[in-house]
Design a protein that fits this description.
The complex is a heterotrimer. Chain B is an alpha/beta fold. Helices cover 40% and strands 22% of the residues of chain B. Chain B has 14 helices and 14 strands. Classes of the chains: A mainly alpha, B alpha/beta, C mainly alpha.
Chain lengths: 291, 408, 354
C-alpha cells in the first residue's frame, strides 16, 4: 500500500511538472519547426499571459476559466500584432539576428512589466475546488496536479487531432516537412504561420497561468525558465507536438525521481539527461526535421 | 584681462566659502550611495527597501536636520558581485559619496569588500545575510540579520517548544541556505533532536517545483520540516506545496525562518499558511509603539494592501544608523573609521524592537520572535508572537564556525 | 554577408587588374592605419576617465571574451550558448590557485587559465561538435550548466554562489600591484593582454588555417569535398577559442579579485553572444563595437533609470536586428559600400567621359 502510494506520488508529481513544461513549450516547437524561427521570447508570451490571468483573478475577481480564456486571447492578439509588424521581417534573416531580436524583445517585456505592474512576484489564488487533495482510490494526491495532467492530456490530444485530422493540420505538417514544396503546392505559409504563432503564444499564456502555482510569476520569468523550454523542444524534436509531449513528460518524471532520491544532485540530472538524449538522438525523440 | 579673471575667481572662491560656512542657512549635504538589484532575480526585494528609506526621511525630517540626505541609486543587476563592485567603486570615486548602503545579495557585499576598505567610507549592509561578510572589511556595519540568528533559535525551539525529535531540512542551495541548515542542525541536535535528512531544494534564482523535495520529506515522516528559501515567490510555493501534499495530516509540521512567511506575501498564501510556526526578527504585526507607527505610516503612504517586511526594516534601521553616525561625527561621516566607531554599541528602538550594533563584530544584535500565523477577525492573516528571545547575536561568529572564525 | 566578399567587390570595382581576387586577398593582411584607433582610444580612456577604470576593465574583459566567441561563431560557424563554460573554467583556475595561495603571479596565471579552459574545450568539443544547429546550441548550454552545478556542489572549494573573496593577486612583473579603488594597473594589464590576444587572433584568421575556417562556415560540404580535414580544424578552432575565453575569465577574476558562480552562468554566455551579434560577428572588430555599445548603454542607462534600463537596451537590440543585418559593423559596412560604390561609379563615369 505504502509503496503504491509512493510510486503513484512520483508518477503524478512528475507528470504534473512535465505537463506545465509541455503546455508552455508546445507553441515554441511548432513555430520553430514551421519557420525555423528561433523565438527565445516565447517565455515572454507565457509571462504576459500569466500576468493577465493572475491579475484578472486577483484584482478584478474573474473566475479561473474566464481568466484563462482572457489570457489566451489577449496574448494571442498581442502575438499577432508583433508577428505582423516585427517577426515577419526576420523570417529570412539568419538565426543569430533572430536571437538578437528576441532577446531584445525579452528585455522590453521585462522592463515593461516592471514599469506597469512592478517587480514584486505575483501569486495565483486557486479556486477552492482545485486546492487540497483528491481521493483517487489507492492514493490521495494534490488536486491541482491531477487537474494539470488531465488538462495537458486534453490539450495534447486536441492538438494531435488537429494535426492529423484537419486540413490546417495537414498543411502545418506538410510545411514542417518541406516548406518549399508546401509553398509550391499553394499553401499560404505566411498565414499558416500567423495562425500557429498566435495559437502557440496563447498556449504559452495558459501555461504561464497554470504554472504560476508551481513556478511563481515575476518579470524575470522569460529568462528564468527559458532553458527548460528549449530543452523540452530540442529533446522532443522540432515541429513535433507528440514529441514535445513525450519529452516533457519523460523529463518531468525522470527528473522528479532523481531529485526525489538524490536531491544532492540538484539540477544536474535534467542537464545530463538532455545531453545524453541529444547525443543519442541529435534530432530529438521524434527524430523530426534537421534544422 | 588676466587680472580681471583673478578677481572674478577670487570672488567666486569667497562666495563659495561663505555658502559653505557653518553659519550659513543652507544644510550640509550628505551623499548616500544606495546599491540594490533593481533588475535581475533580486529585483522584487528592492522596492520594499526603497519605500522604507523614503518613509524614514519623510517621517524623521526633524532628526535628520541640519543635514540633507541625497540618495544616489545604483543597480547591482544580477548577483555576480562585479556589477555591485563597479557601482561601489564609481560611487566612491565619481560621486564622492559619504556613505555606502544597500547590498541585497551576499556576493555583492563580498565582492565589494576590498573597494569599501580602500575607499575608507562607512558601508551599511541592509540585507545581505551571509554570516562572515562583516569580517571582510572593517568598514562594514550590518543592520539586517544573519541566518544563524533566526535558524539557531528555531533549532532550539523545535526541540524545546515543539518537542520535535526528528527533523528534515530543505534549503535553497546557496550560502544563506547552508547557513540556515548548519545553524538549525547545530542548535536542534544540541537540544536532543536529530536532523535525519538535509535536502538542497533548487537555487535562488528560479523557483523550483518543490513537490519532489517535499515528497521525499513526507516519506521520511519527521516531526518537523524546517525550510529555508529566500523570501519572495519561492515562499508562496513552499507553503502551497506543503499544504497540497497533505503533510500536516501526515504529522509533519512545517517550520522555518520568517522568510517562508514574508509579510508582503502572506495574504497571497491564503489559509494554507494558518498555524505555521516560524522564527524571525520582524513581522508587521509586532506589538510595539515604533512598529505601530511605522506600519500605520507605511499603509498611509503606500496603500492599505502594501505591507512592510523585514527587508524594509533592515533598510529603515540602516538609514537610522547613518543618521546617528552623522550626528555623532558632527557631519564628518566621510571619516569612515570614526563613523564606524560611533556605531559600535549603538542602540536604537527599531520597529523590530530594541537593536544594538555589536562593538566586536559590527553586526546587529536583536530580538528574535517565535511567531505563529493565524486568521484575524478581519479575515486577513496575521502573526502572533509566542515567545521573545532577547539580544540574539550571530551565533556563527560567537561560536567561530567555519569561515566565521577570524582569519589567522 | 561575409567579410571576405566586400574587399573583393571593392577591389574589383575600383581597380580592374588581371587578378582582382588575389589582390584583394593580399590586401586583407595589411595592417590599416585605422586599426590603431581602438588602441589609442583604449589608452586615451585611461587618462581621460580615471574614475571609470573598473568599468573599463569589465569592458576590456568583455571584448576579449567576445573575440574568443567570434573565433568559434564568426569564423568556424559554431553556434554556442555555452561559452561561459570556458570563461568560468579560466576564472576558477585563477581564483582557486590564488585563494589557496598556490599560484598568484598574474601572467602565468592567465596561461594556466588558458590551459584549463583549452583542455575542457578540446574534450567537450570532441564529443559535441558532431552536431549542429539547435542541438549543438543545447548541448553547449547543458554542458555549461553541468559545470555550473558541479561548481555549486563543490562550494566548499569554489565558494559557490558567494564566491571566493579578496583573491590575493600578485603584482605584474613583480612590480605593479593591483589597486582596489582605482583600477589603473588592472586596466593597463587587461589592455595589454587584450592586445596580445588580438594580434594572435588577427594573425590566425588571416592565415591559411583561418581561411579554411571561413570556408567551413560558408560551405562545409565543399570543404569536405576538397579534402579539407574539416572536423579536426573545427575542433582546433574551438579549443583555441575556449583557451582564449579562459584567458578572459582569468583576467576577470584577477581584475576583480573575485570569482563566483556567475562566471559560469547563462547570463554571461547570453550576454557575450548578444554583444557579438550586436557588434557584428566574423569581423574581428565586431567584438569591440558590440561590447562598447552594449556595456556603455547598460552602464549609463542604469544610472539614469535603475529599475527599467533594460527597456532602452531592448529597443536597441530589436532595432539593430530589424534594420541592420550583421550588427552595427554590418550596418556601417553596408553604408560604406553604398557610399564608396557611388563614388567609384562616379569616378569611373568621369574617367570614361573624355
Amino acid at each position: 500500500m505504502n509503496a503504491v502510494a509512493e510510486i503513484a506520488g512520483i508518477v503524478l508529481g512528475g507528470l504534473a511538472a512535465g505537463t506545465v513544461l509541455f503546455i508552455v513549450s508546445v507553441g515554441l516547437s511548432v513555430t520553430m519547426g514551421l519557420m525555423g524561427f528561433v523565438n527565445l521570447a516565447h517565455g515572454a508570451f507565457a509571462m504576459f499571459g500569466g500576468y493577465i490571468i493572475v491579475l484578472t483573478m486577483n484584482r478584478a475577481q474573474y473566475g479561473f476559466p474566464a481568466a484563462l480564456a482572457l489570457g489566451f486571447f489577449g496574448t494571442a492578439a498581442l502575438s499577432v500584432v508583433l508577428e505582423r509588424f516585427l517577426y515577419r521581417r526576420l523570417y529570412r534573416a539568419g538565426e543569430l539576428d533572430q536571437v538578437l531580436f528576441t532577446i531584445g524583445l525579452i528585455f522590453i517585456f521585462i522592463a515593461g512589466t516592471t514599469i506597469v505592474v512592478g517587480s514584486e512576484a505575483q501569486s495565483l489564488q486557486l479556486p477552492p475546488s482545485l486546492s487540497g487533495q483528491l481521493n483517487l482510490g489507492i492514493v490521495h494526491y494534490r488536486t491541482y496536479s491531477i487537474f494539470l495532467i488531465v488538462i495537458g492530456f486534453l490539450i495534447a490530444l486536441g492538438i494531435w487531432l488537429t494535426f492529423e485530422r484537419t486540413r490546417i493540420g495537414g498543411q502545418i505538417r506538410a510545411t514542417v516537412d518541406n516548406r518549399r514544396m508546401a509553398e509550391s503546392l499553394g499553401i499560404n505559409v505566411d498565414r499558416l504561420f500567423t495562425i500557429t504563432f498566435a495559437f502557440g503564444s496563447g498556449m504559452a499564456a495558459i501555461g504561464g497561468g497554470l504554472g504560476a502555482e508551481f513556478l511563481g510569476l515575476d518579470p524575470q520569468y522569460p529568462l528564468a525558465y527559458l532553458v527548460y523550454f528549449l530543452i523540452a523542444v530540442s529533446v522532443g524534436g522540432l515541429g513535433s507536438v507528440i514529441g514535445v509531449y513525450y519529452a516533457a513528460l519523460i523529463l518531468g518524471v525522470l527528473n522528479f525521481v532523481l531529485t526525489l532520491y538524490m536531491p544532492k544532485g540538484g539540477t544536474i540530472f535534467i542537464y545530463a539527461l538532455t545531453i545524453l538524449i541529444l547525443l543519442a538522438r541529435p534530432r530529438g525523440l521524434s527524430g523530426g526535421k534537421e534544422q | 584681462m588676466s587680472k580681471r579673471m583673478t578677481a572674478a575667481f577670487a570672488a567666486l572662491v569667497i562666495s563659495a566659502g561663505v555658502a559653505g560656512a557653518p553659519g550659513a542657512a543652507s544644510a550640509q549635504g550628505v551623499k548616500i550611495g544606495l546599491i540594490l538589484p533593481y533588475t535581475g532575480p533580486g529585483a522584487e526585494l528592492s522596492p520594499q527597501m526603497d519605500k522604507a528609506i523614503d518613509l524614514y526621511q519623510k517621517l524623521n525630517a526633524a532628526q535628520i536636520k541640519p543635514y540633507k540626505l541625497t540618495i544616489i541609486k545604483r543597480d547591482s543587476k544580477a548577483p555576480n558581485g562585479v556589477a555591485a563592485k563597479i557601482d561601489t567603486q564609481e560611487l566612491l570615486t565619481q560621486e564622492k559619496v559619504d556613505v555606502i548602503a544597500g547590498y541585497i545579495y551576499s556576493p555583492d557585499a563580498i565582492a565589494s569588500a576590498p573597494v569599501v576598505t580602500a575607499g575608507k567610507r562607512l558601508a551599511v549592509i541592509m540585507n545581505a545575510g551571509t554570516a562572515f561578510i562583516t569580517n571582510l572589511s572593517p568598514l562594514y556595519v550590518r543592520t539586517s540579520f544573519t541566518l544563524w540568528q533566526s535558524s539557531y533559535v528555531m533549532g532550539e525551539e523545535a526541540a524545546k517548544y515543539l518537542h520535535a525529535k526528528t527533523a528534515v531540512v530543505a534549503y535553497t542551495d546557496y550560502p544563506p541556505g547552508k547557513d540556515a541548515l548548519n545553524a538549525f542542525k547545530y542548535a536542534f541536535e544540541h537540544n536532543g533532536g536529530k536532523v535525519i535528512d538535509a535536502i538542497p531544494a533548487g537555487g535562488p534564482e528560479a523557483t523550483p517545483d518543490f513537490t519532489p523535495f517535499f515528497q521525499r520529506a513526507k516519506n521520511e515522516h519527521p516531526d518537523v520540516l524546517f525550510v529555508f528559501v529566500p523570501a519572495g515567490d519561492q515562499a508562496t510555493a513552499v507553503v502551497k506545496t506543503y499544504a497540497a501534499l497533505g503533510m500536516k495530516a501526515a504529522g509533519t509540521k512545517l517550520i522555518g525562518t520568517g522568510d517562508i512567511v514574508p509579510d508582503n506575501m502572506l495574504q497571497g498564501m491564503g489559509d494554507n499558511a494558518v498555524g505555521l510556526i516560524t522564527v524571525h526578527h520582524y513581522n508587521a504585526d509586532l506589538d510595539n509603539p515604533q512598529n505601530k507607527a511605522f506600519v500605520a505610516a507605511w499603509k498611509k503612504a503606500y496603500g492599505a494592501d502594501s505591507t512592510p517586511d523585514f527587508t524594509s526594516v533592515g533598510a529603515w534601521d540602516g538609514i537610522a544608523a547613518i543618521v546617528h553616525a552623522l550626528h555623532a561625527t558632527k557631519g564628518k561621516i566621510d571619516d569612515g573609521a570614526a563613523a564606524v566607531k560611533s556605531l559600535e554599541g549603538w542602540k536604537f528602538a527599531s520597529p523590530q524592537g530594541p537593536i544594538e550594533i555589536d562593538p566586536q563584530t559590527r553586526d546587529i544584535v536583536m530580538n528574535e520572535y517565535l511567531d505563529q500565523v493565524y486568521k484575524g477577525s478581519d479575515g486577513k492573516l496575521h502573526e502572533k508572537v509566542l515567545a521573545t528571545f532577547h539580544n540574539v547575536k550571530d551565533q556563527c561568529k560567537a561560536l567561530a564556525i567555519g569561515p566565521c572564525a577570524p582569519k589567522k | 554577408m561575409s567579410v571576405a566578399a566586400s574587399p573583393a567587390d571593392d577591389a574589383a570595382a575600383a581597380a580592374p587588374i588581371e587578378n582582382p581576387a588575389a589582390r584583394a586577398l593580399m590586401r586583407r593582411h595589411r595592417v590599416h592605419g585605422w586599426e590603431a584607433l581602438p588602441w589609442l582610444a583604449g589608452i586615451a580612456f585611461y587618462f581621460a576617465f580615471p574614475d571609470y577604470l573598473s568599468f573599463g576593465c569589465d569592458l576590456l574583459v568583455t571584448i576579449l571574451f567576445a573575440l574568443s566567441l567570434d573565433l568559434a561563431l564568426g569564423y568556424a560557424g559554431i553556434i554556442t550558448l555555452g561559452h561561459a563554460a570556458f570563461f568560468g573554467a579560466g576564472a576558477y583556475a585563477v581564483g582557486m590557485l590564488a585563494t589557496y595561495n598556490i599560484w598568484t603571479e598574474p601572467i602565468t596565471g592567465l596561461l594556466l587559465a588558458a590551459l584549463v579552459a583549452g583542455v575542457i574545450g578540446f574534450l567537450s568539443g570532441m564529443v559535441l561538435l558532431r552536431t549542429r544547429g539547435l542541438t549543438l546550441l543545447m548541448l553547449t548550454l547543458c554542458t555549461m550548466a553541468l559545470l555550473e552545478q558541479a561548481a555549486n556542489m563543490a562550494a566548499a572549494y569554489t565558494g559557490g554562489f558567494d564566491g571566493l573573496p579578496s583573491l590575493p593577486i600578485g603584482p605584474v612583473f613583480g612590480v605593479f600591484a593591483f589597486n582596489p579603488l582605482y583600477a589603473d594597473t588592472q586596466y593597463l594589464f587587461a589592455l595589454s593582454v587584450l592586445f596580445v590576444c588580438f594580434v594572435f587572433m588577427r594573425t590566425l584568421v588571416y592565415s591559411a588555417f583561418g581561411q579554411s575556417l571561413t570556408g567551413i562556415r560558408e560551405n562545409i560540404l565543399r570543404m569536405h569535398a576538397i579534402g579539407s580535414p574539416v572536423r579536426r580544424r573545427v575542433l582546433i578552432c574551438y579549443t583555441i577559442s575556449a583557451a582564449m575565453a579562459g584567458v578572459a575569465g582569468g583576467l576577470w577574476a584577477q581584475t576583480n579579485a573575485y570569482v563566483n558562480l556567475s562566471a559560469l552562468g547563462l547570463d554571461r554566455a547570453a550576454t557575450v553572444l548578444i554583444v557579438l551579434i550586436l557588434g557584428g560577428y566574423g569581423r574581428l572588430y565586431g567584438a569591440f563595437i558590440g561590447a562598447v555599445v552594449y556595456l556603455a548603454l547598460e552602464h549609463f542607462l542604469a544610472q539614469i533609470y535603475p529599475t527599467a534600463w533594460q527597456l532602452g537596451l531592448g529597443i536597441l537590440l530589436v532595432f539593430i536586428a530589424l534594420f541592420a543585418r550583421g550588427g552595427i559593423l554590418g550596418l556601417a559596412e553596408a553604408l560604406w559600400r553604398r557610399y564608396s560604390g557611388k563614388l567609384s561609379r562616379r569616378l569611373r563615369a568621369e574617367r570614361a567621359a573624355p
